[in-house]
Amino acid sequence: MRYTVLFSIFLFAILTGCKKDKYKSTPSLTFKSVSSTRVPPGSVVKFTLTFTDAEGDVSGSVYIEKNEPTCSASSFSETDSIPSFPATKNQKGDIVVTFGNNVSSLENISPQCQRNDTAVFRFAIKDKANHVSDTVSSPPIIIYYQ
Question: What is the pLDDT of residues 80-125, one digit of tens each?
Fold first, then answer.
């Protein structure tokens, strides 16, 4: 009896300790980091998101939303394509989304109400099979007017 209990505990420990990473058909998205929560004019902000996907077909699109509750003119939502890359099973990677506050070579997120914005950015991804991830949010980002 004593060996049966020990064997059961040992077997349970092996089974719970050897879990495989569970990649799903629906992509998973997590917010990893933001380069800065304060963005003065002429500066860049980079959001890093981490994804996982069982089929590796994430080369679909990324949904981006800027929500500034006190200035609707500063808020926007858009869908951009994710560049194609080789698909592999159980794929994991990072997506970097970059914006500029009055930087001519980047999409502009400058305040539109002649004062600082305090905005939250939301992101989701869709794979080639039209599976959509959960939506993830950034911390509040202060975008300086001048």
Answer: 988 877 778 888 989 999 999 999 889 999 999 999 999 999 999 9
Q: What is the value of pTM for the model shown?
A: 0.81
Q: What is the CATH number of the domain that holds 137?
A: 2.60.40.770
For 106, the domain range is 21-143
Query: Residue 8: which residues within 8 A CB-CB, separation 6 or more?
Result: none
Q: Please report whether residue 79 resides in a domain.
A: yes
Q: Is residue 11 domain-resident?
A: no
Number of domains in the chain: 1
Residues 6+ apart with CB under 8 A from 13: none
User: Is 55:89 a contact under the CB 8 Å cutoff?
Assistant: yes
Query: How would you classify residue 24: left for phi > 0, otherwise alpha for psi between -120 and 50, otherwise beta?
Result: beta
Please say whether the beta carbons of 124 and 27 come within 8 A.
no
